[in-house]
Amino acid sequence: MKIGVFDSGAGGLSVVKSLLEHNLFDEIIYYGDTARVPYGPKDKNTIIRYSLEALEFFNNFDIDLLITACNTVSAYALEEMNAQSHYPVLGVIEAGVMAVENSFIRKDDAILIIATRATINSKRYEKRLKELGYHNIVALQTGLFVPLVEEGIFGGEILDSTMRYYFRDITEPKAIILGCTHFPLIAKSLQSYFSNETILVHSGEAILEYLEAHYNLFPKSKETELKIFASDNVVGLRKIADDWL
Ligand code: DGL
Fold this sequence. Notes:
Layout: E1 2-7, H1 13-22, E2 27-32, H2 44-58, E3 65-68, H3 71-76, H4 78-83, E4 89-90, H5 93-101, E5 111-115, H6 117-122, H7 124-131, E6 137-141, H8 145-150, H9 157-166, E7 175-179, H10 187-193, E8 199-202, H11 203-214, E9 225-230, H12 234-244
Parallel strand pairs: 1-2, 1-3, 2-9, 3-4, 5-6, 5-7, 7-8
Helix pairs in contact: 1-11, 5-7, 5-11
The protein binds D-glutamic acid.
D-glutamic acid (DGL) binds next to α3.
């Protein structure tokens, strides 16, 4: 099976990392819209337009399935993308919600959602979780983490003070939904800011659980082949992939 993975930039490589570790696919075509990242501060119509343009890129490949690793795209453009493609387009939000349901998180446990401005404003995570009976939810825009990760800052004083700034009014949650592709890269710092007991819900692992539940996929004997493309500075993106993967 040949799949596409789409993200606004480099962050979706955190999802690719989980997919590669499980070796479920023959080939992954990754496309990062590095010319126009970040999507998080943009409005809905722009996010939809960019996402539909990304579909045109994937028309060059004969893929069986497209995963939009980007939470921001998953929040706004899935319906439009599915309407315009002949393969299924999966987002990460439904998968993240399923991961919460499959974990030891009770309905009254405190859940913190962190994501870009657009994802938080869409209320997609919040609505789905509330429909399922989770009611102790705080949703927080933490967009500054995105450029820090893009700069390769995964720990240290700048990240610590950014966490202190964002989390100044937050009391220890039972679980944190990492509602942005970049955040798994700062998972260790988030974990040590809160506690080792805090459950971190990561899109890459969530989408794997989702694929296993909805598609009959088993690990391949041959390694997954990864091809990386970008709308700008593909050399830079491939370098990031070499460092992260
Ligand atoms: N990929 C985006 C997401 O997961 C984060 C970066 C951006 O703002 O484009 O929401």
